[in-house]
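so the lab meeting is tmrw and i was supposed to have these ready like two days ago... anyway. pasting both below. for each one the top line is the aa sequence and the line under it is the structure tokens. i havent really looked at them closely yet so no promises
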Amino acid sequence: MAEAPAPVTGAPALPDGIVAVVKRDCPTCVLVAPVLGELERSGVALTVYTQDDPDFPAEVGTRRDDRSLEVSYLHGIETVPTLLRVQDGRETDRREGWSRPQWEAFTGVEGIGADLPEHRPGCGSLSVDPNLVDELRVRFEGGGRRSFVDGPFTEAKELVAGFWLWQVRDMDEAREWARRCPATGPDGTGEIEIRPVFEAADFGEAFTPELRAQEERIRAEAAKRQ
């Protein structure tokens, strides 16, 4: 049993009934996909949010695309599959992973997943993936919708409109500054790309005396044109 956490301020409202959060790239989610179909056919008010494939699970008709991970992140989903019980738009309870006795008690439907193992642990939610969590935190908790994107730009429609130069200790401090930046769009959304700027000392021995002399010559020529 998992305690229902308080959702982050501004979290999207959830539909009443049973809400399941899954991803295709999880063996346990694939295992229980037929069970979700059983629940829907039994009359359970079921809504499935899918993190990585809007067509998964095919056994369920009421699927919602959560590839942005907005629902998963703002509702504190740490494991998939997770079942949520929602009443009057508020979560009242949740279960993580697959356990037939727990799912039967939680949904009120007996005999589900009869051909499955009785228990199976879940997988890590994409919303807590170490490679994504910093971006999600800035996007959804930074006082506006902001995200980090990798450069360089590959499409002509993506234009650099302006920039700041920050002298910081590391990327963590740069992200803290990014959280303070004003959003760029009229709807309070925007994207901020962070790129490190390298100095000569960062290249070590690779920055040979010849290259150093070349850089100094270019700097001197640029100064004359100002």
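ok protien two:
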Amino acid sequence: MRGGWLSEGGGGRSERGNGDWARGGVGEGGVRGMIVAHDSGRPVATLQFPYQATDRTFVAQRLDGECLSNGRYMHCTFVNLSFKETTLTTFEFLNCVFIDCYFRRATLKNCSIVGCKFIDCELPKLALITCDFRYTRFRRCQVAFESMRHTLPVEPNLRRDTCRDLASQSSKLGLGADARRYRMEELSAREQHLRNAVLGESEWYTSHYRGFARLRALLRLTGSYTNKYLFGYGESLSILLRNSFLAALGVFPFIYYLVPSGFDYQNGAEHSYGECVLLSISTMFPIPDLSSISTGRWYTHVIASVEAACGVMVFAFIAAYVFRWSVRQ
């Protein structure tokens, strides 16, 4: 879809490199094909003053460098329009679709873009000032995190959904840094949403999260915090390594040290903290015959099994992290 469906009318992407790809005309057959493919039945119109329309399709216009204000478009489709360095002030777009539009260095001030879709659009260096992007989705395009971060929805559940969508699109486009920042913002918004649900921060949360629903939110929040502080969501290698060494050198050796009767001792070995550390290392990381003591009771077998499972999880997270890093590179 990215290169083919606009080519029939002669306006397509062949001139995109110069920012003039929306300047060419689109033939009648190309326009008809686009309307049929996207929102059939909406008459074609021209985007012009007083900048208000409902159920209309706007095709192949160049609005580069213009300053437009006080517009309202509902249930409209915008196809192959160029808004290069255009300033839109106090515009409202409700349930609109933007297809193959060009927004390089455009500025949007006090704009409401609610329930809209951006498909195959170019949005580099977009300036957003006090805008509303609730329920808006992106396909095969994205807005840089730095441009979007102060315009994300205030409601944590809506911010979570928007960031999840933009993280997915950024990842598909190979923009690893933006994808990671959107993912972290999504996780933060998700935790805030669950926290509000558990505490009943508003009437909406109180009415939507009662009884078992609130308990389920608490369990999810606990799991998220566990993932965050123990494994860094699988996104922070330093947190993962730090906690692994703390567990192998501190937590599990201390537990072993508290139960001396649960071990078998070889070659006259004594129960010491050093031997417990060596046993913990050989359990967390598969290094055989490192310690002179071994588990000999059911409860020490259980503790060692838990530590071994933690070691497997650590290696799995590290492998996943390295794989994602290599893919991004």
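from a quick look at the 2nd one: Residues 103 and 123 are 5 Å apart (CA to CA). The radius of gyration is 28 Å. will dig more after coffe
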